[in-house]
Specification:
The complex is a heterotrimer of chains A (261), B (345) and C (275). With 261 residues, chain A is of the alpha/beta class. Chain A has helices spanning 51-59, 76-82, 101-111, 116-130, 134-137, 146-158, 176-193, 204-210, 244-258, and strands at residues 12-21, 25-35, 40-44, 66-71, 86-89, 164-168, 196-201, 213-217, 224-229. In chain A, helix 3 (101-111) crosses helix 4 and helix 8 crosses helix 9 (244-258).
Chain lengths: 261, 345, 275
C-alpha cells in the first residue's frame, strides 16, 4: 500500500506552505499539517481560505510559492509520476460529455495504459461499488441526474485504486438526503479499500460523520488553527447523526470555525 | 407542420422584398414614366440637353473620336452637354441603355444582337470602325501564322465572347487549352506557349514594349467582322427625340474625323483619364486605327456608315455559333443609318 | 389500435421527413409563384428577369451541359472542402500546442480570409497553371479560415479542471490532444464546417472564373460567365440555381452528419422550437 519504508512517517507533510497568486493575493501562509497513511481527514474553513488550493497543490496542479509540501517525502508532481496513485474528486462531476458512463470510468486506465483485458471487469466492479446498473452504464452524462454523475466521478477517481484520494467539496450541489446517502457510501468504500482521504467541505456535520480528524483553517491567508479528533467508532451508521455526542462535536467544530474556542 | 401563423409570416416576409423588386422593375419597363433626364420633346435652342455616354472599357484609342468631339466643342455647339462615363471589365452598356440609365453608349455589333435577342431594345447609329480590331496575339517564335494553325497553346479568351464562340466553331483548335482572359499581357510574356485575345493596336504594342515577340492574327481574316466601338442608343430615345440623336451623331462624326487627323490633344486627355494608356500606346493606336476606320469603300467623309449585309452576315454567324437562337432577332431593326450626316435627304 | 410496429415507425419517419423538407419546398413554390405572376403581369425584358418557365426551359435544353458542369464544380467543391477540413484541423492542432506558433501564424490565417482572389490569381496561374489544381487551391483558400479559427477555439477553450484531470493521470500531450481537446472541439469544428461548405462552392466557382479551363472542363463558373456575356439571363439563372443547389446539398450533408456525431452529448437544434 504505502511506499515509504518507515510507516511512522506521515504520507503527507506540509511545512509552512505559502501560496500567493500572481497579483499578490496570498491564499495560504504558514500552513503546516501531517496526514498519516490510511487516515481520513476533513479540512473545514471559511470561504476563500485556500482549502481547494491546498488540494490542487497536493495533486500537482500547481506549485507552492514557499515552504515544503511532500507526499511520501517527494514533491507531489514526482510522487504522482513515480508510483503513487492519486485520485481527485472535483466539485463538479467533471465528466467527459462525449463518453458514456463506461467510457468515463475507463478513462484513467486508458491514460495509464492499463492492459485492455482487465479494464472491463474493473469497470463492472466499480459500477457495483458505486451503485449503478448496466443500463445506466451506457448512458451519457447529460442523461444522468446530479447524484448519479457524482457517483460516476467518484468511481472514476477510485478505479485506479489510488493511495491518496483528494475530494474537493464533491457533494456540495446535492440535496441533503442524497448527500447523506453518498456520505455513507463513501465511508463504506473507505473502510473497504483503506486509501488515505483528504476531504474538503463546508458542511461540518458531513466532516464529523466521515472523518477521524478534522482540521480547521483560518480565514485567508489560510493556516491550520485547530485540530479536532472525532472519536466515534467505525463503521459509522446513519443512527450516529441522531446521537447527542454528534451534535456536541458538530457544535464545537462550528464554534472553532467562527473563531471562538 | 407549419402553423397558420408561420405560413402567413412566410408569405409576408416574401412579398416584402418582392414588392421592392416590383417597384424597381416597373420603373424601367413601363412606357408611361417620364424620361430620366432633361431630354424632352421641347427642343428650344436655348435649353441645353444633358446626356450621358457610357464607354464599354477604360478610355482608349478606340474611343478617341467621342472625346475629340467633346474637346473640340461639337456637342456644346449643338446644345448638348455630354458626360462621357468610362467603363471597365463589367460595363453593362446594353442594359444601361435599354433601361434608360444612359442615353448613349459604346458597344460592339455582336453585343447589340445578343442584347436584342434577350429583349433589350437598343439600336446602333454610328460605326467609326469598319474593320474589327479583334485579334489573337501569338508568340512569333511559335511559328503560328494563321488562326487555323492554332494548336498546342494556352489560349486566353473571355468566356462567352461572340468571337470566341465563332472561333471555336471555325478552327480545329487541337490541343488548345482555353483559359479566361486575364486583362493584361503578363502571362503572355511569361509563357512562350501562350496566346490571348486583344485589340490589334493595344496588347501587341504593350507586349512588344516589354520585350515580347507578339504577332497579331486578325479574327476578321476568318470572316468574323462585327462593327466595333459603335455608338448605340435605345429605341425609345430614337422615337421620342430623334433630333438629339441626329445632333450627337453629327458631333461624333466630326469628332472622329478630327481625331484621326490631329489626335494629340485628345490623346493627352485619354492619358489623363487612363494613365495605364501611355501617350506612346495612344499614338500607335491612332495610326493603327486609320486603316480600320477608313477603307476603300468608306472614305473619311462617309464615316460611320453601316450596311445591312454586314449585319445579316453577323446575325447568321452568331446563330451558327449558337450565341443567339435562330429567328430571335431581325438584323435590320438592330441599326439605322438615318442619323448619319451623309444620309441627309 | 395497436398498429404493427414497422408501420408506426415508418409513418413517423415519413412525417419527420415531411416536416423537414416541407417548409423549404413550400417557400420555393411561393417564390416561384410570385415570380411567375410578376413576370407575366409586367413587361420585363428577358435579359433582366426571365420568366420561371423560361429558366426551366433553358435548364432543360442544356441539361447535359448543366449536369456535367454541376458535376465538375461539385468535384472541385467537395475536394476543396475535404482538404480544408484536413489542413484546417492540422493547423488548429499546431495552434493549440504552441502559443508562439499561434501568435505568429494567426495573422496569416486571417490574411487567407481577406485576400482578394483576383489579386493573387496571376500568381496561382504562374505556379500551378490553369485547371483543376488551381481551382482546388482557390476553393481551399476561401474555405480554410472558418475551420482553423473555430477548431482552434474549441481546442484551447477546454475547462481547466478537465485538463487537470488528465494531468492527474500523467497523460501525454498527445493523449490530451486526442482524447480531450479534439472531442471538445468537435461542435466548434462542425459549426466551422457548415460555414466552409458554402464557401468551398463559391471558391470553386470563383476559381473557374479566374484560373479554370473551358472547352474540355466546363464548370458552373464558366456557364455563369458565358451566359452573362451573351445576356442569356435564363441560362444564367439556371446555372446560379444549380450552384445554389450544390451549396445546399453540401451544407445539408455536413449539417446532418455533424449533428449525428455530436447528438449524444450536445443540445442540437430542435425542430420543436417555437419562438
Amino acid at each position: 500500500m504505502i511506499a515509504t519504508a518507515d510507516s511512522h512517517l506521515p504520507l503527507i507533510r506540509a511545512a509552512d506552505v505559502e501560496k500567493t497568486f500572481p497579483g499578490g493575493h496570498a491564499v495560504l501562509a504558514g500552513l503546516s499539517l501531517d496526514i498519516r497513511d490510511g487516515e481520513f481527514v476533513s479540512l473545514v474553513g471559511p470561504s476563500g481560505c485556500g482549502k481547494s488550493t491546498l488540494l490542487k497543490l497536493l495533486a500537482g496542479f500547481d506549485d507552492v510559492t514557499a515552504g515544503q509540501l511532500t507526499i511520501a517525502a517527494q514533491t507531489p508532481d514526482a510522487a504522482r509520476k513515480a508510483f503513487h496513485r492519486v485520485g481527485f474528486v472535483f466539485q463538479d462531476a467533471n465528466l467527459l460529455p462525449w463518453r458514456t458512463v463506461r467510457g468515463n470510468l475507463q478513462l484513467p486506465m486508458e491514460l495509464q495504459r492499463a492492459p485492455a483485458e482487465i479494464r472491463q471487469s474493473k469497470i463492472d466492479d466499480m459500477l457495483n461499488l458505486i451503485g449503478l446498473n448496466a443500463v445506466d452504464a451506457k448512458k451519457y452524462p447529460r442523461m444522468l441526474s446530479g447524484g448519479m454523475r457524482m457517483r460516476v466521478s467518484l468511481g472514476r477517481a477510485l478505479i485506479t485504486q489510488p493511495q491518496l484520494l483528494l475530494l474537493d467539496e464533491p457533494f456540495g450541489a446535492l440535496d441533503d438526503i442524497l448527500r447523506q446517502q453518498l456520505n455513507e457510501d463513501l465511508s463504506r468504500i473507505w473502510q473497504e479499500r483503506k486509501w488515505t482521504g483528504l476531504f474538503v467541505t463546508h458542511n461540518v456535520s458531513e466532516a464529523v460523520f466521515l472523518s477521524q480528524r478534522i482540521l480547521v483553517m483560518s480565514a485567508p491567508p489560510g493556516k491550520i488553527i485547530a485540530e479536532i479528533p472525532v472519536p466515534f467508532p467505525f463503521p459509522r451508521t446513519p443512527e450516529l447523526r441522531a446521537e447527542p455526542g454528534f451534535a456536541r462535536l458538530t457544535g464545537e467544530v462550528t464554534a472553532r470555525l467562527r473563531g471562538r474556542s | 407542420m407549419m402553423t397558420p401563423v408561420t405560413k402567413r409570416f412566410f408569405s409576408l416576409s416574401l412579398l416584402l422584398p418582392l414588392a421592392v423588386a416590383l417597384i424597381g422593375c416597373s420603373d424601367s419597363s413601363t412606357n408611361t414614366s417620364p424620361p430620366p433626364n432633361d431630354v424632352s420633346a421641347a427642343n428650344s435652342p436655348a435649353s441645353v440637353e444633358k446626356i450621358q455616354l457610357q464607354l464599354n472599357w477604360f478610355p482608349e484609342a478606340e474611343h478617341g473620336g467621342f472625346y475629340a468631339a467633346d474637346l473640340n466643342g461639337h456637342y456644346t455647339a449643338a446644345g448638348v452637354e455630354v458626360t462621357i462615363l468610362p467603363g471597365g471589365p463589367n460595363a453593362a452598356v446594353i442594359q444601361k441603355v435599354d433601361q434608360g440609365d444612359v442615353e448613349f453608349a459604346v458597344a460592339s455589333a455582336d453585343q447589340v444582337l445578343t442584347g436584342r435577342a434577350g429583349g433589350a431594345k437598343v439600336v446602333a447609329v454610328f460605326a467609326p470602325l469598319q474593320m474589327s480590331p479583334r485579334c489573337i496575339m501569338v508568340h512569333e517564335k511559335s511559328g503560328i501564322k494563321s488562326l487555323a494553325e492554332l494548336k498546342g497553346v494556352t489560349l486566353a479568351m473571355s468566356p462567352g465572347a461572340a468571337y470566341a464562340e465563332f472561333l471555336k466553331k471555325k478552327v480545329p483548335l487541337t490541343d488548345v487549352k482555353i483559359v479566361p482572359y486575364p486583362g493584361n499581357v503578363t502571362q503572355f510574356l511569361l509563357d512562350d506557349n501562350y496566346a490571348q485575345q486583344g485589340y490589334v493596336f493595344s496588347e501587341p504594342f504593350d507586349a512588344k514594349k516589354e520585350g515580347g515577340d507578339p504577332v497579331a492574327l486578325m479574327v476578321s481574316d476568318l470572316g468574323f467582322n462585327p462593327y466595333t466601338s459603335i455608338l448605340i442608343t435605345s429605341e425609345k430615345t430614337i422615337k421620342e427625340n430623334p433630333e438629339l440623336v441626329r445632333k450627337v451623331v453629327a458631333a461624333v462624326t466630326k469628332g472622329w474625323q478630327e481625331y484621326l487627323d490631329q489626335p494629340e490633344a485628345t490623346n493627352k486627355r485619354l492619358n489623363e483619364l487612363n494613365p495605364a494608356m501611355g501617350l506612346d500606346v495612344l499614338e500607335y493606336g491612332v495610326e493603327a486605327l486609320k486603316p480600320l476606320c477608313v477603307t476603300e469603300e468608306i472614305d473619311i467623309s462617309k464615316m460611320g456608315a453601316m450596311t445591312p449585309q454586314r449585319w445579316n452576315d453577323l446575325a447568321a454567324q452568331l446563330i451558327e455559333a449558337e450565341v443567339i437562337d435562330s429567328g430571335s432577332v431581325k438584323p435590320e431593326e438592330a441599326f439605322t443609318t438615318e442619323f448619319l450626316p451623309t444620309s441627309a435627304k | 389500435m395497436s398498429s404493427s410496429r414497422p408501420n408506426a415507425s415508418a409513418a413517423k419517419l415519413f412525417s419527420r421527413g415531411v416536416n423537414w423538407i416541407g417548409p423549404p419546398i413550400l417557400l420555393f413554390i411561393i417564390v416561384v409563384g410570385v415570380w411567375f405572376v410578376v413576370t407575366h403581369l409586367h413587361e420585363i425584358p428577358k435579359y433582366l428577369l426571365p420568366r420561371p418557365e423560361q429558366v426551366f426551359e433553358a435548364a432543360w435544353n442544356q441539361k447535359g451541359m448543366l449536369a456535367g458542369a454541376l458535376w465538375l464544380t461539385a468535384q472541385e467543391s467537395l475536394c476543396g472542402f475535404g482538404l480544408s477540413l484536413v489542413i484546417g484541423v492540422v493547423i488548429a492542432f499546431a495552434f493549440s500546442q504552441s502559443v508562439f506558433i499561434r501568435r505568429s501564424c494567426y495573422p496569416y490565417a486571417i490574411f487567407l480570409q481577406t485576400v482578394p482572389i483576383v489579386a493573387i490569381a496571376p500568381l496561382i496561374i504562374t505556379w500551378f497553371g490553369n485547371g483543376f489544381k488551381s481551382i482546388l487551391l482557390v476553393s481551399i483558400i476561401l474555405s480554410l479560415f472558418p475551420i482553423i479559427t473555430n477548431t482552434t477555439t474549441g481546442l484551447i477553450s477546454v475547462d481547466a479542471n478537465l485538463v487537470n484531470l488528465f494531468r492527474l493521470y500523467n497523460a501525454s500531450r498527445w493523449q490530451i490532444l486526442l482524447k480531450l481537446r479534439f472531442p471538445h472541439a468537435l461542435p466548434y469544428l462542425i459549426t466551422g464546417a457548415k460555414i466552409s461548405s458554402g464557401l468551398s462552392v463559391i471558391g470553386a466557382i470563383v476559381g473557374e472564373f479566374l484560373v479554370g479551363y473551358s472547352q474540355t472542363e466546363i464548370g458552373l463558373g464558366y456557364l455563369i460567365l458565358q451566359s452573362s456575356a451573351q445576356l442569356k439571363t435564363a441560362q444564367l439563372f439556371a446555372a446560379v440555381i444549380a450552384s445554389a443547389v450544390l451549396g445546399i446539398a453540401i451544407f445539408g450533408t455536413v449539417n446532418a452528419l455533424g449533428n449525428r456525431l455530436i447528438a449524444n452529448w450536445t443540445d442540437t437544434p430542435s425542430d420543436n422550437v417555437n419562438g
